[in-house]
Amino acid sequence: MTPIIVPFHHDERLPADSLPVTGETVAPDLPDGELWPRLVALHSAVADTVAGRIGSGGVPTVVSGDCLVALGTLAGTQRAGLDPAVVWFDAHGDLHTMSSSTSGYLGGMALRLAMGAEAVTAPLGLLPLAEERALLVDARDLDPAEADFLRTGGVTRVEVDDVAQDVLPDGPLVLHVDLDVVDADELTGMKFPAPGGPSGDRVVRAVRRVLDTGRVVAVDIACPWHPARDADEAAARARLLAALEPSRL
Fold first, then answer.
1. Pairing mode, strands 134-141 and 85-92
2. Hey, what domains does the chain have and what are their CATH numbers?
């Protein structure tokens, strides 16, 4: 099944060559005005496409420029009548709220938003994700507020090499992979690089273990990177995306 390509970082349209993969592009005209209605329009279009793919018996793969699009992917699985948990590969926690974030960067709130931020979940018709239904993988770069949330909340966090069937949430799964989970020395040019991460091969093997459960109903891949500086960097990105395609795993 061809990927669903969402060429956006938040509500900003990306250049055509930013996501080196071919597939069905979802790029609706967004309304003028404030950010949240624009994001809702984008994510709703993603949700409709994901729901349609699932309704046709497929396991859609969504490739975009940021983690926020995972909200549309998750909403799409729910529109298709499923109630999935989430396995979230990321170098960061993505667990901030508007009040805890020091930068205001929305991508750093994506997983927490899925847990019930009314500005997004209500217009999308997204049922909030229970904390206990989220598995956070890696998250080696946590801010203090995120670390506090993990200590007191229900989200489980594991290392990449510890991803196995016995730590996964029950039921159907949405598998989210922010490519900055890969070590910044190997996958260069990320917007928010985090050193000391796993190799791309280790991430691919962990992703394969999740897919091998047969419970993944949608895959969401975020590519929050700067434009490729040269052909070698672009080729490395394309190889990693190809390696993560479920049909090749």
1. parallel
2. 4-248 (3.40.800.10)
What's the pLDDT score for residue 248?
Answer: 64
pLDDT at 73: 98
- CA 27: distance to chain centroid? 17
Residue 100: the pLDDT is 81
| DSSP 8-state assignment for residue 190 | B
Q: Report whether pLDDT(241) > 90.
A: yes
Neighbours of 76 (CB within 10 A): 32
CA dihedral 201, 207, 209, 215 (to 10 degrees): -170
The DSSP output letter for 136 is: E
C-alpha–C-alpha distance, residues 102 and 95, integer Å = 12
How far apart, in whole angstroms, are the C-alpha atoms of residue 50 and residue 52?
A: 5
Exposure string of 128-165, with b = 16+ CB inside 10 Å and e = fewer, is: ebebebbbbbbbbbbbebbeebbeeeebbbbebeebee
Closest CA to 177 of 109, 245, 75, 105: 245
Read off φ and ψ for residue 232, nearest 5 degrees.
-65, -40
- The beta strand positions in the chain, using DSSP E, are 4-6, 8-9, 12-13, 24-25, 61-64, 85-92, 134-141, 156-158, 173-178, 216-222
